[in-house]
Design goal:
Elements (H helix, E strand, L loop, with lengths): L8 H10 L3 H15 L4 E6 L12 H6 L6 H9 L3 E2 H4 L5 H4 L7 E9 L2 E10 L8 H23 L11 H11 L4 H8 L3 H15 L4 H8 L4
Antiparallel strand pairs: 1-4, 2-3, 3-4
Helix pairs in contact: 1-2, 1-7, 8-11, 9-10
Amino acid sequence: MKSVAKSSLQELFRAIARSSNETELKQSVMVRVGEYFAARRWMLYSVDQFPIVDENTPKTVKLALSLEHNPVLRYLVQNHAAVHDELVLPPGVWRRICHRPDHGHVMAGPIIDCGQLAGGLAFTRHRDDPAFDAVNLADLSALCLHVSTRLVEMRGQGLALDCDRITPREAQIAQLVARGLTNKAIGANLWITENSVKQALKRMFRKLEVSSRAEMVARLSGGK
């Protein structure tokens, strides 16, 4: 494997904290993280970015997104913990599941928001490269914690700028809406019923003269 100069873990923590938006985090910061793990490919993704699986989806993509077929993804979804292929499979077995040479070794870690899996960090190495190990896994767990925290901060920034017309409880709901949570998840986070969330959103829509969640978030962020 080609040797590359890479950032230290502490330098990556600082880069994550200094990132000004999600684009910077997903692009320039992730390049440094990918180099840190000597990965061939890397990605920071949101759960809502997964393609919709239907009859037109290629078979290889269906298998990759299948919890039954993909033990690495299944472990990540079920445990919300960092994982690499040899943690859940004997050495070499992953190659029989995924035939792409540049995905010969895989590692993924969770992005968590309000106790729910909101996305992940994913890395691959070529099958001729060394497999990911326990040290890589520990470092990824630490990075996932920093990325999760920074994304939550980014997605909540700005909503307090124009909250004169809503109550503090409604402002809490708006913050969670901005982070992409469902009504059920918002209710669980705030210890109120899903119906209470629905009714609160109806009141907020009337107050703010909007007709959608996205429009509400834009209005509270200072948009017109």
